[in-house]
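Practice problem: predict the structure.
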Amino acid sequence: MTPWRDGWLHRDSARRAVVADGAAPRPRAAPGLSAAPRPRAAPGLSAAPRPRAAPRLRAALRLRAALRLRAALRLLASALEERDPACVARILDPRITLVIDTGGAAPAPPEPVRGRREVAAALVRTLSIHADTVLCEQSVNGRPGLSARAGDRVVGIIVVALRRRLITDIWIVLNPEKLRHWNP
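Answer:
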């Protein structure tokens, strides 16, 4: 402990600088309450450190999440190539939601589709609009996604969300107006 303006400066178990009150007598505490002096944070220091993950740990966690997402996208692409709803349903969360934005250019459900079997069937139906559709892994808004290509044109973009290695949400954009910048 080292002397401080109005008390003693010491480090607590979390290595924070704490000022303990001086030796001045304190009034007696009521029964059941502690009469020990309460440590205060030193001027300019917060009383409790903010929990922060190390930058390397955060980067490693982001990388792990991206790798899981890419693996899920590869499974989804291979299942959709089979055009088998039962195969697609195996990698979907039971409470999955599918949102399709066609802009009125293609037939699609007007409301989000919910449920494993319903989403799997809707995915297979939606991607069979073009017979020669090929799914390619693509970066979409900085995250892994899939692009549906018919020949050399992008006809759709697929983005997914994961929870516990199952796909929980799927967003498909088939709106030609929104896909204009994907096709030169």
